[in-house]
């Protein structure tokens, strides 16, 4: 199991969100990171796009959005179809 912590700051308060990945979710996380890096390596993403893609998932965790796994799965499946 892996835990990801993201810290969110606003003018009034700060909060920490955490998400625990099961072993199945960990495989998805690994494949997601690999997909983004492969797109960068293939020239489909420039450095800014790759950074943005990786950051987006962790920002979703910080915002408390529960669909982060669906986002990762969509990116991986889109890469598998390419």
In short:
With 82 residues, the chain is α+β, with helices and mostly antiparallel strands. The chain contains 3 helices and 2 strands, in the order ββααα.
Account of the 3D structure:
Helix content is 60%, strand content 20%. The chain has 82 residues and is an alpha+beta fold. It has helices at 23-41, 47-62, 68-81; strands spanning 2-9, 14-21. The protein contains three helices and two strands, in the order E-E-H-H-H. Strands 1-2 form a two-stranded antiparallel sheet. It has one domain (2-81). Helix 1 (23-41) crosses helix 3 (68-81) and helix 2 packs antiparallel against helix 3 (68-81).
Features:
82 residues, alpha+beta, two-stranded antiparallel sheet, 3 helices, 60% helix
Domains (count): 1
Q: What's the number of extended β-strand segments?
A: 2
Order of helices and strands: EEHHH
Strand order of the largest sheet: 1-2
- Shape, per Cα inertia axes: globular
Taking all residues together, what is the mean pLDDT? 80
Describe the sheet with the most strands. Answer: 2 strands, antiparallel
Strand content: 15-25%
Task: Report the C-alpha radius of gyration, rounded.
Answer: 14 Å
SS field, number of helical segments: 3
- Broad structural category: alpha+beta
State the low-pLDDT regions, or none. none
> Helicity, in percent?
55-70%
């Amino acid at each position: 199991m892996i835990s990801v912590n993201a810290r969110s700051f606003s003018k009034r308060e700060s909060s920490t969100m955490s998400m625990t990945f099961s072993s199945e979710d960990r495989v998805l996380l690994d494949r997601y990171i690999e997909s983004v890096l492969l797109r960068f390596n293939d020239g489909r993403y420039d450095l800014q796009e790759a950074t943005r893609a990786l950051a987006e998932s962790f920002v979703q965790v910080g915002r408390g959005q529960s669909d982060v796994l669906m986002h990762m799965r969509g990116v991986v499946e889109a890469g598998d179809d390419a």
